Amino acid sequence: xxxxxxxxxxxxxxxxxxxxxxxxxxxxxxxxxxxxxxxxxxxxxxxxxxxxxxxxxxxxxxxxxxxxxxxxxxxxxxxxxxxxxxxxxxxxxxxxxxxxxxxxxxxxxxxxxxxxxxxxxxxxxxxxxxxxxxxxxxxxxxxxxxxxxxxxxxxxxxxxxxxxxxxxxxxxxxxxxxxxxxxxxxxxxxxxxxxxxxxxxxxxxxxxxxxxxxxxxxxxxxxxxxxxxxxxxxxxxxxxxxxxxxxxxxxxxxxxxxxxxxxxxxxxxxxxxxxxxxxxxxxxxxxxxxxxxxxxxxxxxxxxxxxxxxxxxxxxxxxxxxxxxxxxxxxxxxxxxx
Length: 338
Ligand code: SF4
Ligand code: SF4
Prior knowledge:
The protein is an alpha/beta fold. The protein has helices at residues 36-44, 50-57, 62-74, 115-124, 140-149, 170-179, 234-242, 277-280, 284-287, and strands spanning 5-8, 12-16, 21-25, 30-34, 47-48, 78-81, 102-107, 129-134, 157-163, 183-189, 195-198, 208-211, 250-253, 259-260, 330-331, 336-337. Strand 2 and strand 3 form a beta hairpin. The longest helix has 13 residues, at 62-74. The two termini are 43 Å apart. One iron/sulfur cluster binds next to loops.
């Protein structure tokens, strides 16, 4: 063993924070916390033998070094190689050919816009992810019409926040999930109790119906940062290194029908019908927010989770454009969630 070289696999990428680090396994979509001393070791010795490490750190550190290497082996973050020349670093370029990848459309009982023309525009822009947020009761027959109109669209994934309604039973919602496989998440808010249903008949095990007592009556619920929302995968990781993980290639329609980066932002770009989504994309004021990445954001730039974390530019500390998301309770300098 001591004659072979240890090397991290290309998909296992260490990220350093102020008080600790992580290794992101972008293939297995998982991460592990590591001390900063192990991060520094991996940066100083991208390729090492045990003998080299002991020579560099001293015999007194043998036990710690063996412990570190055992940890890396146990989590299969790397392997022992005779010939490492064939192992190239991962290409971390992020590219999506779509002009828009994701969109939010908000609706309440005072909304006076039609959904279908917006869907058509999103389809022309090759948008793939759509979030529909209904803050008030919405008719069953109309919801089915809307979802049917997306059947042949570019939209691959639809996340729905739906106001609980006597018109819908749990069976109705489950039938909806089976009939419209593009729905990847259905959250029924303002419910009487918190309930969670896995649907054994759905072709995807992961799809679930989630009832919550939380009242989602406007856009202010958005922007929470939580470890449960982390995405440790190559798409998110590479996008986060270059772009904003919430706003990049996003276009939204607020409940008043106004075009915006996100419904919680005060800057609007005209009303749908008067302005088009396509024309809005030419406006640099609209697209400039796409490139605010975590390495530019105060506090986040020192956080080990910065490339797997979501971001929020609407609710920020002190309402400043480059401050940390206000709804994040993590302190990377202490390594603690408050
Ligand atoms: S910027 Fe914040 S409030 Fe707006 S969509 Fe993103 S997370 Fe939500
Ligand atoms: S400090 Fe920033 S990067 Fe770290 S968890 Fe909070 S929002 Fe995410």
